[in-house]
Design goal:
By secondary structure, this protein is mostly helical. The protein has 4 helices and 2 strands; from the N terminus they run H-H-E-E-H-H. The chain has a two-stranded antiparallel sheet. The N and C termini lie far apart (47 Å).
Length: 82
């Protein structure tokens, strides 16, 4: 719609579309950043390591000996009652 408005010489309408598009991009970015948390702990990608560590601790009830900081963090969150 923005391109169509520009082509028709309607710069004000094109600006309205552009503002809306930018607003939606900002909301999407904020939502994506908010989703990169697991029970209050920030994740770098998809939080799968945190989830796996959390679930592992729920099953075993002991501290894991892993090489993954994300996994260990998930287990620590579960141990803390999170």
């Amino acid at each position: 719609m923005e391109q169509r408005a520009k082509t028709a010489g309607k710069t004000a309408a094109a600006a309205v579309y552009r503002r809306y598009i930018n607003k939606m991009k900002k909301k999407t970015k904020q939502r994506q950043l908010a989703e990169l948390q697991f029970r209050g702990s920030e994740c770098t990608q998809d939080c799968s390591g945190h989830r796996a560590g959390y679930e592992w601790w729920q099953r075993n009830r002991r501290t894991p000996q892993s090489r993954s900081a994300s996994f260990d963090r998930g287990a620590a969150i579960a141990a803390a009652g999170g």
